[in-house]
């Protein structure tokens, strides 16, 4: 996208903002319009997501924490002593702390695009686990990155909780699993949290919460475009809607235009018909079989799967 690149240069955008500009302009130029969910997570978006995780309707976080808590001993028993835990897309450290309490890990390598947050979390962990070496890596974990030299010789365990995998299209999910296997190396293990298909009503409510936090989280991507890319979205002129697409096994989040309007972003104009949507997120839901097939197809062997009593969420151990 030459136009966006030239604009990014003219605006002296940093690398991350340039990528955002490019993706936003490209996505808003398509039909249906779309924006990547990875742009939800500015400071406000990350805070709103933390609020989502404790909503009564949003079952994934507390269910996964329950599984990790109840099964920490079993998970620990398949992780070799002295291993380095590599977390893809590290946010809050609540989940990894459950494993650190049970496993004799030598190192923790949180990998995230947001460097500042990463460093603050790393400092807190070093304080609480003085024997643990923490090597934060600032990188987009969906692209290949190098592990720190210090963990080259120790066994590696990947950690990818939260069903973040669900944000990937099926082909991207396979590509990610393959790339993680490449990065972690032969013999590595992986502990991954995957949200499961379930009653449509439960899914609907989890993404259309009564308090409207998910709506604010979704609309915040427009606020971010306004601030970082000089956009003029009127967030009051769009509504949040999440729907379950049963054929494709995914929740879709949309921002729907209440009226005919046009919006300017980086000097370009994008017009909306009444009811026209921007597709902002897909959150894929798996069956245990569809996930293990995906894992097998991308170079991993499933070792064990754990779910909660209601079969809402799953945690899988894999070996490369
Ligand atoms: C962080 C991608 C797992 O899909 O449930 C929460 C993001 N979106 N509510 C999810 C999200 C709306 C979340 N993931």
Protein model, in words:
This protein is an alpha/beta fold and 320 residues long. Helices cover 39% and strands 24% of the residues. It is built from 10 helices and 14 strands. The chain has helices at residues 2-10, 15-28, 43-52, 59-77, 94-102, 115-128, 170-184, 200-207, 213-229, 288-297; strands spanning 33-34, 84-88, 107-112, 133-134, 137-138, 156-160, 189-195, 238-245, 250-257, 261-265, 268-272, 277-284, 301-307, 313-319. Strands 2, 3, 4, 5, 6, 7, 13 and 14 form an 8-stranded mixed β-sheet that branches. α3 (43-52) runs antiparallel to α9 and α4 runs parallel beside α5. The chain is globular, with a radius of gyration of 20 Å. The protein binds N,N,N-trimethyl-histidine. N,N,N-trimethyl-histidine is lined by residues 52, 60, 162-164, 166-167, 207, 214, 281, 283. N,N,N-trimethyl-histidine binds next to β12.
Quickly describe the structure:
The chain is of the alpha/beta class and 320 residues long. The chain contains ten helices and 14 strands.
Low-confidence segments, given as residue ranges, are none
Q: What are the distinct ligands in this entry?
A: N,N,N-trimethyl-histidine
Order of helices and strands: HHEHHEHEHEEEHEHHEEEEEHEE
In which range does the helix fraction lie? Answer: 25-40%
Strand content: 15-25%
Largest sheet: 8 strands, mixed
**Structural class based on helices, strands and sheet pairing:** alpha/beta
Tell me the overall shape.
Answer: globular
User: Using DSSP, what is the number of strands?
Assistant: 14
The N- to C-terminal Cα distance equals 37 Å
Mean pLDDT over all positions: 94
Q: What Rg do the Cα atoms give?
A: 20 Å
Number of helices: 10
Protein name: L-histidine N(Alpha)-methyltransferase
Enzyme class: transferase
GO molecular function, one term: L-histidine N(alpha)-methyltransferase activity
EC number: 2.1.1.44
């Amino acid at each position: 996208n030459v136009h966006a690149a030239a604009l990014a240069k003219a605006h002296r955008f940093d690398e991350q903002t340039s990528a955002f500009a490019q993706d936003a302009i490209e996505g808003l130029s398509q039909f249906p319009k779309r924006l990547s969910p990875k742009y939800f997570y500015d400071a406000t978006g990350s805070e709103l997501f933390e609020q989502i995780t404790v909503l009564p309707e949003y079952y994934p976080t507390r269910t996964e924490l329950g599984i990790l808590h109840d099964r920490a001993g079993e998970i620990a028993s398949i992780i070799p002593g002295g291993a380095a835990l590599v977390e893809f897309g590290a946010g809050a450290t609540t989940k990894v702390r459950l494993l650190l309490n049970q496993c004799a890990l030598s190192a923790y390598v949180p990998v995230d695009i947001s460097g500042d947050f990463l460093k603050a979390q790393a400092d807190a962990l070093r304080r609480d686990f003085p024997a643990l070496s923490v090597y934060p890596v600032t990188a987009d974990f969906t692209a290949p990155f190098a592990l720190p030299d210090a963990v080259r010789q120790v066994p590696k365990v990947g950690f990818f909780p939260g069903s973040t995998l669900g944000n990937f299209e099926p082909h991207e999910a396979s590509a990610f699993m393959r790339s993680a296997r490449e990065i972690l190396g032969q013999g590595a293990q992986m502990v991954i949290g995957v949200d499961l298909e379930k009653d449509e009503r439960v899914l609907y409510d989890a993404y259309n919460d009564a308090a409207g936090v998910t709506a604010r989280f979704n609309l915040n991507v427009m606020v971010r475009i306004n601030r970082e890319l000089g956009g003029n979205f009127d967030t009051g002129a769009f509504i949040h809607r999440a729907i379950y697409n049963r054929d494709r096994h995914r929740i879709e989040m949309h921002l729907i235009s209440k009226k005919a309007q046009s919006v300017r972003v980086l000097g370009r104009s994008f017009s909306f018909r009444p009811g026209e949507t921007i597709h902002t997120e897909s959150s894929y839901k798996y069956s245990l079989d569809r996930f293990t097939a995906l894992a097998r197809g991308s170079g991993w062997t499933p070792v064990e799967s754990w779910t909660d009593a209601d079969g809402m969420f799953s945690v899988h151990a894999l070996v490369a």
